[in-house]
Amino acid sequence: MTGNNDKGSFALDDGDIVINRPKLGEFYILGVEMGGPEHGVVFENRNQVVTPPGRLYQRNGAAFRLFNEMPRLRQSRPDRMVNDLASSFGGHWLVSEPLKRIFESVDPEGFAFAECEFILHDGSVGPKHYLCDVVRTLDAVDETTSRIRIELDNDFPGGKYYSEGSGARFAFKKDVVGSAHVFLTPYNSMMVFCDRTLRDTLIEQGFGKESDTRGVSLEDAAALGVYTLPPSYWPENR
Questions:
Q1: CA 132, 210, 238, 185: dihedral to nearest 10 degrees?
Q2: pTM
Q3: Most buried of the four, 66, 78, 106, 116, by CB within 10 Å?
């Protein structure tokens, strides 16, 4: 199942024109920049901190719940260090203090954080880092006008899954998004959406720039992976 693929205006059965088509520069996929050498930072007490089903906090929009000990990270190699945004820490992001401040300044209700004990290779205390999760979920994707693959299966939460494969283009229900600057969709918990406000703030503060991303990936949700396709599929040619 996919969204509407008409190149012109989208139309509903009753003849009304839908203008809420995917629009470049409105929403972005916020994630971790992939590639590069391994960071060499180890989550030493993961088994003591992370309990089934493998998440540190209750996904209720509140915050990380209390646990018996602080997450402890150790730099295992003196020549390797994590970026300001990294993944694979018990299923959570790891963020630096500067990046945490940006997230909190733009959307304090959208994120949850847990401070970590960060130990450098020589045994000294490292810069502050935090486990981080997005704790807002909105059913805001406009399936009628998005150009995405929707997989249907009762095993998926809510019975469906949004694919972010090459050529996907997302449109959003603005009344559902409201004033939120960051959110998840209930149909793909690995995909974090942010608006132009958060994206621009990150860029202005030096995160997500092509020259030095500092671990932050920002990809336009209206053209996700589309530039890997032939030019006839590019937004400016549609």
A1: 0
A2: 0.82
A3: 116
